[in-house]
């Protein structure tokens, strides 16, 4: 069994939660944990509905390895406010503001300390990182993409899923939730299986939400679903992928039930400087919050990749 106190290890007193304001004034919740003798700096960004606290275990691992670590909650989730009237809906009419936020934050953060600047991004965060990289908004020395959301899983396939999402945005409020959340044990069990095989790490998420309910975010809006389909398809077709020189490590869970691993693998094949690590049935979507065997392998790949580029 995993000791919950290990998962909930809050960073030391020299870490801090603060705020960063985007050029348009939007307030973002920010986290920093400087290292006294850093080998470099790394920005850690989560996915849709994620919060900084879910990555404390990963942040602690990176800090122990000598990195100064920073993270921020995406606009519209966590402690960075909401984009819909219903605070439980993860809404986005467009992903463009998120891509812009990442670029604006990066340009200010990159020069705040010594050493190479790296980026580690999970799921939707990896999608946004790729878009920002292609647009020239970020220039990391190296980038780690964990379970990248290039395509999203749909029971009817990508083409039909896009058409359904577009229809649903036209038939009603685009900011309404795309599905309802049930509170029964069966529904919770299904969600856990999609995210991680680790019961303890899944429960850790609830610990943080119980501690601060305002951080919790529910299902995406229909507008978010449509934008995820459209932006993912555009990203796969982007002719600039072949010109990316940034070293990229991509960790893909081939049994992922939330994002489409086949889309991630297709995109990886277009990148000229990519290292690919594939996980099988032992891994669900949250590779860095999986059972120890998966998480340890993922950390080993990340550590070796960053070490080679420090």
From TrEMBL:
Entries under PANTHER family matching the protein: PHOSPHOLIPASE-RELATED
InterPro entries from the UniProt entry: AB_hydrolase_fold, Hydrolase_4, MAG_DAG_Lipase
TM ranges: none
Name under which the protein is recorded: Alpha/beta hydrolase
GO molecular function: hydrolase activity
Record-annotated Serine aminopeptidase S33 domain positions: 37-292
Keyword Transmembrane helix part of the UniProt annotation: no
Keywords: Hydrolase
Domain of life: Bacteria
């Amino acid at each position: 069994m995993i000791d919950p106190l290990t998962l909930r290890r809050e960073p030391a007193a020299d870490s801090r939660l603060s705020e960063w304001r985007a050029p348009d004034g939007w307030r973002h919740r920010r986290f920093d944990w400087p290292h006294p003798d850093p080998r470099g700096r790394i920005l850690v960004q989560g996915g849709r509905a994620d919060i900084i606290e879910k990555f404390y275990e990963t942040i602690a691992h990176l800090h122990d390895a000598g990195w100064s670590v920073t993270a921020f909650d995406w606009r519209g989730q966590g402690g960075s406010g909401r984009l819909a009237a219903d605070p439980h809906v993860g809404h986005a009419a467009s992903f463009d503001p998120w891509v812009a936020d990442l670029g604006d934050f990066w340009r200010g953060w990159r020069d705040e300390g010594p050493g190479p600047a790296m980026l580690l991004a999970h799921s939707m965060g990896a999608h946004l990182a790729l878009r920002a990289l292609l647009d020239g908004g970020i220039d990391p020395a190296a980038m780690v993409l964990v379970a990248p959301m290039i395509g999203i899983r749909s029971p009817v396939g990508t083409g039909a899923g896009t058409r359904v999402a577009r229809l649903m945005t036209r038939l009603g409020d685009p900011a309404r939730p795309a599905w309802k959340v049930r509170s029964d044990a069966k529904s919770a069990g299904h969600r856990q299986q999609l995210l991680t095989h680790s019961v303890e790490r899944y429960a850790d998420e609830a610990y943080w939400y119980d501690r601060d309910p305002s951080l919790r975010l529910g299902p995406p809006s229909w507008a978010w679903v449509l934008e995820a389909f459209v932006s993912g398809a555009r990203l796969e077709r982007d002719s600039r992928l072949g010109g990316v020189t940034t070293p990229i490590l991509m960790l893909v869970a081939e049994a992922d039930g939330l994002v489409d691993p086949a889309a991630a693998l297709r995109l990886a094949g277009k990148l000229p400087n990519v290292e690919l690590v594939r996980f099988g049935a032992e891994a669900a979507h949250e590779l860095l919050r999986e059972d120890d065997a998966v998480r340890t392998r993922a950390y080993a790949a990340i550590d070796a990749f960053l070490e080679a580029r420090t």
